[in-house]
Design a protein that fits this description.
By secondary structure, this protein is of the alpha+beta class. It has a 4-stranded antiparallel sheet with strand order 2-3-1-4. It starts with 14 loop residues before the first strand and ends with a strand.
Amino acid sequence: MDDVNIYDSGLKFPLTWNARVLAYSSAGDIAELITDVLERANLPQYACVPGNISSSGTYRTWVIKALVPDYPTLRILFSNLEQLPGVKMLI
């Protein structure tokens, strides 16, 4: 069996990452928490803006656009954003 390089994902870094954080509306405005995660990752560029609210009002989204320098940073972003209070998923 060949060794598999977990960093050989076919992605070319640096890359512009477009994502959405889907969270329960009851969690409130978590934009500051999201921004804190992005700042701690020392990204050269990023933005976080409010997105849509579901028709039932159950969920809210925040839209992220960030320049991610490498795969380990991308994995850290996923992990830290998924752990924020009220986050349902990343899209």
